[in-house]
Specification:
Radius of gyration: 21 Å
Low-confidence stretches: none
Number of domains: 2
Mean pLDDT: 97
CATH topology of the largest domain: Aspartate Aminotransferase, domain 2
Strand content: 5-15%
Structural class: alpha/beta
Length: 377
């Protein structure tokens, strides 16, 4: 199916009609085990921790959309990240972007630190800083683009060149962009990470994660860990994620359209001190984003005068629900410092207290702008 366009693969990859009755949706195989015709000779799977047909279909479409040969799905984005990090050994080193999801930092700073895995944080928009951070022990360079929550844009191809020159793999969290807007494997990344909970699911009704890659040896190691560690998703969540992938292209177009309008409104508002959105020509990463992305995404963050003002604004919207997470069809607002990024307080990843993060949904942009205008006023 590699010759088919994105929107077509999102609906058809791994999703042929079910052969027994012709159901056009992949069935929810709600089973924990499988009958075997002979001892030790399962038809395909022997136990559902190791595999499930609904999960197989989701993994096939995710691999197709990201342009990878292999995909593994997990019970959450952090489950995916944890399993990937288990490929490291004591003494290994990770270079971590200085504006990543707080849970990623927590894994390295408070879980793997006791296992002898070291890491350093660096501003990955500065290639010289990345070169200075890699060492002979570096095994992974871990990036996001755009980043969470400051929407920095990292030149994936350039950072991949630095990582590979040091003998390390480049891992890119593509949750914010999705494969519809950006495909890191085509830009030189070795592994793509997703929180399927977000845009891929798209309806705020599931929790899941995924890894996509093309390295056969690493895929074999990860498949062993998937079964050995067991942080796998249930078939219902896989079914919901499959449904989400079918409309991903349409939803991302609407998210981007709304975010552009919202960012433009905020950039001209007197109470807004700074807007972080790569679609604005004045954004430091605008040119890189325009080169490596189809569009600029549905996430916008902005700074007001104080943390108290940020809290007041976030608690005053009506259409933007005050909630953590992102990527659903409904718009969300939050204050990262005391909410999603509380775990990085006092660390190099600490975010400004006056920062507000928006996940712009697919509502009409004019209604969203009116809601923000009321809250800011």
């Amino acid at each position: 199916m590699s010759d088919l366009r994105f929107e077509t693969r999102a609906i058809h990859a791994g999703q042929e009609p079910e052969p027994l009755f012709g159901a056009v949706n992949v069935p929810i195989y709600q089973t924990s085990t499988y009958a075997q015709p002979r001892v030790g000779e399962p038809i395909r799977h022997d136990y559902a921790r190791g595999g499930n047909p609904t999960r197989d279909a989701l993994q096939e479409v995710l691999a197709s959309l990201e342009g990878g040969r292999h995909a593994m799905s997990f019970a959450s984005g952090l489950a995916a990240e944890s399993t990937l990090l288990l490929t490291l050994s004591p003494g290994d080193h990770v270079v971590l972007a200085d504006d990543v999801y707080g849970g990623t930092y927590r894994l390295l700073a408070r879980v793997l630190d006791g296992w002898g895995v070291g890491f350093d944080t660096v501003d990955m928009t500065d290639l010289g800083a990345v070169r200075g951070a890699v060492t002979e022990r570096t095994r992974m360079v871990w990036a996001e683009s755009p980043t969470n929550p400051l929407l920095k844009v990292i030149d994936i191809a350039a950072v991949a060149e630095v990582a590979h020159g040091a003998g390390a793999r480049l891992v890119v969290d593509n949750t914010f962009a999705t494969p519809y807007l950006q495909r890191p494997l085509e830009l030189g990344a070795d592994v793509v990470v997703h929180s399927v909970t977000k845009y891929l699911g798209g309806h705020s009704d599931l929790v899941g994660g995924a890894l996509v890659l093309s390295d056969d040896d690493l895929a074999e190691r990860l498949r062993f860990l998937v079964n050995a560690v067991g942080a796998v998703p249930g078939p219902m969540d896989c079914y919901l994620a499959l449904r989400g992938c079918k409309t991903l292209a349409l939803r991302m177009e609407a998210h981007c359209r709304g975010a552009r309008a919202v960012a433009g409104f905020l950039s001209g508002h007197g109470k807004v001190r700074r807007v972080h959105y790569p679609g604005l020509p004045g954004h430091p990463g605008h040119e890189v984003a325009a080169r490596q992305m189809r569009d600029f995404g549905g996430m916008v963050s902005f700074e007001v005068g104080s943390e108290e003002e940020a809290v007041r604004v976030a608690e005053s919207t009506e259409l933007f629900f005050l909630a953590e997470s992102l990527g659903g069809v409904e718009s969300l607002i939050e204050v990262p410092a005391p909410m999603t990024h509380a775990s990085v307080a006092g660390s190099p990843l600490e975010v400004p207290g006056a920062l507000v993060r928006l996940s712009v949904g697919i509502e009409h942009p004019d209604d969203l702008i009116e809601d923000l205008a009321r809250a800011l006023g």
